[in-house]
Design goal:
The protein is built from twelve helices and twelve strands. It is an alpha/beta fold.
Length: 397
Amino acid sequence: MFKPQTIALIQATVPLLKSRGEEITRHFYRVMLSEHPELKAFFNEAHQAEGTQARALAGAVLAYASHIDRVHELAPALPRIVQKHVALGVQPAHYPIVGQCLLRAIREVLGAEVATDAIIDAWAEAYGALAQLLIDAEEQAYATTAALPGGWRGQRTMVVARKERESELITSFYLEPVDGQPLPPFQPGQYLTLVLDIDGRTVRRNYSLSDAPGKPWYRVSIKREDGGLVSGWMHDRVEVGARLEVQAPAGEFTLDPQATRPLLLVTGGVGITPAMAMLESAAPSGRPIRFIHAARHGGVHAFRERVDLLAAAHRNVEAMYVYDAPREGDEPHEVGQVTDALLARHLPEDRDVDLYLLGPKPFMQAVYRAGRQLGVPEAQLRYEFFGPTQELVASPR
């Protein structure tokens, strides 16, 4: 794919990327967002402040450099990147801006004596090839979504038809298109991007679809985060009748509709939201389903009544709840954590199960490790992380 000289020059930067990659990406974001403020809407301010976006990008740049002579090995990571870009509405015109700022950051952080013209030219070639690959894949995804019955491209105006409190922290918003046209189907596990104007400032946020597809609405269920700009605005200021701009459903963490093996959904906290779309869709299928949800206490446990109704209506569905700090009157099935022993009780003896994990990162790391140690095939263990990480469970074993 690349000339031998380009490969050699990129490989020569790997040690520097290991030691100074995050410094480069922090500088990159400072430069780009200060000189191109129109791009701020594409980035989560909290993730910027925490440094998680800079760390994730540094890891991605290092992975690309380390595999520059065998880029095909990175192919499994591309669908997630493409889907995140499509969800946000990233356009081809954004890529030259990113490339210019990244090359500038490499030069300014490492210095011209280290980041020579030859090094910068090699990185320009490497970046250009990756950018074109992503542009082509994203165009295909945009076109595919737009071609669906009821599909669209770009933003579509929706109205909040219902607003329902699911717990002390989570509220659901039912969104219906103002044009009265049908909504395209989505895959359980996908998410919407809301494009919001908050006090004159445009922000984009992804929220999981929490209801089954095929209904005249899309439902997103949003947790109020401490100090959260968008979640606080949605909870406090968005009421029934409000109009919101919405990007089409996206995401590659989805439930396989053709699968028949037992399904085990293990969720913690707000991780229950995409799992609800999966449970609602899979419950009528007849496949054995175990639904385990962990929460602090009953007050923050969303959708308990609905899950209980699904379990009562479908003999193939069994639900259990684990609270680590139950309050008086709560009725969890167990108190404490989702332990290896608890998980083992809900796995089939042959371990031939689809295990989906959704929740806080430490929770998923613990369940992932337990699942692998208990013999669940790695290919049948799926997880999703709501944040800017290159790979959620880094070295989880």
